[in-house]
Amino acid sequence: MRITTQGDYALKCILRIAADGPQGPVSISRIVDKEGLPLDYLEQLLLKLRRSRLIKSVRGARGGYLLNVPVASITVAHVLRAAEGEIFELICDRKKKDGKKCKGSEDCVLKDVWKNLKNKIETYLGSVKLKDLLKKTRCTVT
């Protein structure tokens, strides 16, 4: 498991959209200004969030981004998956360069440890809702 800046920035981005969205579409320049995120990087993240259908874009002079689903139904896990793909990839299931899986994958005593850890992490991240983060964050509607 590795949460990268992509996941962190995607969460900051979608929190800004959730906080400011009730006033209308949130422009990319507003997100850049308020969150201090690099524009070129943000464009890529917004595309990923849009492709995952968490946000939608609105064209035009007053265009920008809005949540596509209710904030109460979006979790940290949803955003991380959209930005980074698999949250926790099991080492046992990864293929090596030669195309083979781990030699001990059938009878490895550690496999259950990694599976249980994966489940706990994904359960926790799936329980953290954006609406709860908005209550705790400095993202204010302005």
Task: Explain this structure.
The protein has helices spanning 5-20, 28-35, 39-51, 76-84, 111-127, 130-136; strands at 55-58, 64-67. It is mainly α. It has a domain at 5-88 and 129-136: Orthogonal Bundle (Arc Repressor Mutant, subunit A), CATH 1.10.10. The protein has a two-stranded antiparallel ribbon with strand order 1-2. Strand 1 and strand 2 form a beta hairpin. The protein is elongated, with a radius of gyration of 18 Å. The relative contact order is 0.18.
Strand-helix topology:
Layout: H1 5-20, H2 28-35, H3 39-51, E1 55-58, E2 64-67, H4 76-84, H5 111-127, H6 130-136
Antiparallel strand pairs: 1-2
Helix pairs in contact: 1-3, 1-4
For the record, what CATH class of the domain at 5-88 and 129-136 applies?
Answer: Mainly Alpha
Taking pLDDT < 50 over at least 5 consecutive residues as the criterion, the unreliable ranges are none
Please tell me how large the radius of gyration is. Answer: 18 Å
Terminus-to-terminus distance = 35 Å
Can you give the helix content as a percent range? 40-55%
Query: What is the CATH third-level topology name of the domain at 5-88 and 129-136?
Result: Arc Repressor Mutant, subunit A
The total strand number stands at 2
Shape: elongated
List SSEs in N-to-C order.
Answer: HHHEEHHH
Strand content: 5-15%
Helix count equals 6
Q: What would the average pLDDT be, to the nearest integer?
A: 86
Strand order of the largest sheet: 1-2
CATH-defined architecture of the domain at 5-88 and 129-136: Orthogonal Bundle
CATH-assigned homologous superfamily of the domain at 5-88 and 129-136: Winged helix-like DNA-binding domain superfamily/Winged helix DNA-binding domain
- Largest β sheet strand count, sense and barrel closure: 2 strands, antiparallel
Indicate the structural class.
mainly alpha
